[in-house]
Batch of 4 targets.
Target 1
Amino acid sequence: MTRFSGKTIVLAGAVAACALIYVVAGANRPAVAEDAFTPAQKEAIGPVIRDYLIKNPEVIVEALTEYQKNQADVEAKQFTERISKHKAFLADGAAPFAGNPKGDVTVVEFFDYNCGYCKKAVEDVVKLVEQDKNVKVVFHEMPILSPASQDAARWALAAHKQGKYFEYHVALMKGSAARSVQSLESAAKDIGLDVEKMKKDADSKEVRDMVEQSVSVARDLGIRGTPAFIIGDMLAPGYMGLDAMKEAVAKARKGSQ
């Protein structure tokens, strides 16, 4: 069932109302400005519009549907233009990744270590990499929920410098509580990372700049929350689920052939 917000319904009503004013004014005459109506005419038109919309509510839905379609087309075009600008960064060979480094389809994920749906999505990402040997998943930090998210993102990139990013990434995602520095250290020790080196790397300007750039690119792409996936040239905001992820990969693979 289609659901519309109050704001969009009002907008659609306004669109429908404008259309009706045009009809009342005479469809065969040139469009007229609002000032062309006298106060008396405006007062007379108001009840007509209200009565028409009450009797024909489908006009609002039709106007809203058309508006949303146009907006979706505009946003898709804007995203295509923006992703072209950031394509080199998104697929940067220096960025952490899992799967086949030469995979024919690249999945890019923006995430936050304290995001519940990101924690759920990590299981799907692990299964996708295990089941599809020709996919590459690139990870870009988007720590927007809390200062603890910033810490976790920097520590994960520090783990990347020791060649164990994905292992550390999965370990952090499996925890249910917000990540403290103590828990970050504990997770690092569990998988055999050099904790003292991680502390220095996590606090380095290089790592801080990497996090900042990832967030900046995400914002420019129109990503406002986590998780968000880019598969091929398609943006999928929010949790997808494994089946939807596989379908998107198959579509991207078919489109590249």
Target 2
Amino acid sequence: MGKVIAKVKLANVADLVRAEDGTIQPQDVRRCEVEALADSGASLMCLPEDVVEQLGVKPFGSKRATLATGEERSLPIAGVVHIQIGDREAYQDCVVLPRGAQPLVGQLVMQEMDLVVDLSRDRLAPGHPDEEYPVIDLL
């Protein structure tokens, strides 16, 4: 089975709002770019603690999570993060993983962006390629 790695641009949503209202300069928005594994088994965006700190998003709670090993653990949730993959965007909270862990693009992010894992081409591809804009299934 192949792995799909996506370039993901991230930004602190609170900073984006402050830049929009003029409280901070646009260049002061905390941003970064990571290479994340597209993981349809993960629900949420998962970012290592060092990336969360770089973005300046604050943990606000925790969720019980089952890891790929089958181990259950309580993990912090932080946010909100602006997520951009290619021309697609989403705004979501993220699960905070240990420092240095592989960032993961979860199923909810892919659904919001109308992206699917295309293992034959090792990429994320539009779920509705004939549509001009992302399509979100609400049913």
Target 3
Amino acid sequence: MKLRERPIVLVTGGGGFLGANTVRSLRADCEVYYTYHEKPADIPGVRGYPLELKVRASIERALDKAQPDAVVHLAAMTDAAACQADWDEAFAVNTKATETLLDVCGGTAS
């Protein structure tokens, strides 16, 4: 296995507040890519990929493009009122999509 000079990290939810700040923090030590749902973050020197969390093929595309050594999963439906108003959507985004991401990365959900 060839060792990389800088590890590649993919941050999901990089268009959000927490994700964008995580990307900014990691970029000094890692090659960082991020995903966004609607609007890309304006982070110089970092590439973003659109991601529809509920679509497995979209997750696979983002991982294929970035070829990361690690994934920091920060994408989520975070508005508590919206989650309460549409529990099925919140479950699909926050739970099922996370399980799919884990599966695509080669992990297992427990």
Target 4
Amino acid sequence: MTEPIPFVPVPNYCEENVWMLANLPSQNERWAVFVVSENRRCQMHAQVPQYPSAEAVIWDYHVVLLDRTPDGDVIYDDSYTGDFPGCAIKWTQENFPVDDELLRFRVVDASEYVRDFRSDRRNMQDPSRQPPWPAISPGEYNLTTFLSATEPGPGRLLNLAEWRAEVLR
């Protein structure tokens, strides 16, 4: 059984929610996983829809935490329609049922992410619903380096087939 997390994730602040999760003590290997695409259209089929009739949610990017537990890989995604946290295999199958050649997964070690990620929230469209914690900005804003689907940057960049192999290992 998973212990409750000591904060409430804030909708649409996935990169900060994951940063907060990655800061929590853990014996497990963990990674921040950025779902990105060159065209900034990441179609995911098992996300809480913004519109009731939507079959999928199209994010410009999305960030989740992958936690490698003794019982299997777990995904922390507060926008997922399944369990929170949920089985990484099920999360992958339900969100990406069809191949998408443009989709990429930037997998960044959690400790590296906590140490290096900086955001002053300039990318947020609705700053009125901000998290109760301060912006993660004790340095130069660098969210864009994590969002690149083609350029070298933090962590490893995987395509969908490589991501599936990673979680199905």
